[in-house]
Request: fold
Amino acid sequence: MGNQSQPRIAIIYQESYRQVLHIAVALFIIPLRWLGFRYGVGFAAAAFIWNLVVMPRWFSETLRPGEKSRGYARGMLAYPLCIFLLALFFPVPVLAAAWAVLSFADGLATFGGKLFGRRNLPWNKNKTWVGSLVFLVSATLFGWLAWEWTQINAAGSCPIAFAGLDFFWNRIYANRAVELGFLSAGEKFSSLNLILDKNAPMLFLAFSFLAGTAAAFLESLSLKKIDDNLTAPLCYALCFALLLFCGVRPLR
Reply:
């Protein structure tokens, strides 16, 4: 009995240590309230080097057996790559919300699935119902909190993000932009308090739930060639941005 329980204890310890570090990185979201997309890009570059060079040497106990043989963890490299893409192609509040999903939802879902998951998903035997539910709840809550914390700094977003949003917006409302009172996607994100009604926080929470649902489902799939540190947060960010566009109202 003891010989059988020891490997599980070792696995739980390793995963717990790994996920605590994974979640703790969410503290770096806080400066996004004041710092713009360059902070996100700089963090991504520094974190990529750290995870590639330092983590395998100083924190090798966080690596799984296959990762130790390779000398790096694919998920740890996908994390900063995801932040880099979010910083370039999404406004700062969406970057912050998706970053929170990447840290909290993924980390807590692993905890929940490993410790309390008993029933596997029918379409993926490596994931559990508990893990997916924890992912959805934490993505909804922490994504929303990160959005609320950083939406004041929408003007600090990357110009590429605004250019892409303008392009997308014009394809949807090609002949109605002037009629609706919008000049650009950048203006909309910089004037959220004027565009959205007084129940905006609850509306954003609903957006976070819907985007979190899509991300949770994508995360539950068995996508072996693409790391879920990329797919789930990017899915959340894209869905949140689309829902935001659908929820805007004309400037008065």
User: Anything to note?
Assistant: The radius of gyration is 19 Å. Residues 2-247 form one domain.
